[in-house]
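Chain A, query sequence.
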Amino acid sequence: MIDNLILTKEEQMKGYIRPYRRNYKHIMCGQITSMNRAMAETYAREPKFYSGAFCCYCKEHFPLTKDGKPSFVWYPDGTLVGS
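Chain A, predicted structure.
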């Protein structure tokens, strides 16, 4: 099992600077992935904490942007993941 890095509880308790969202869409394949609560809270507190994301459909990690183009958007609002 792979453990994901997350912010400390103390850092998460400082509040979110972005909305709490758990679902994102991989633009390349169009599929939706859901992340666990701790990772979603980390994104909400520190949107640039991660440089990539995992696609459950493709079964691999991808950078958040490639060649200046986004790889993932939040579902369903379409906001860029990591922004």
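The CA atoms of residues 54 and 61 lie 4 Å apart. The beta strands are 23-26, 32-34, 52-55, 60-63, 65-66, 69-70, 72-74.
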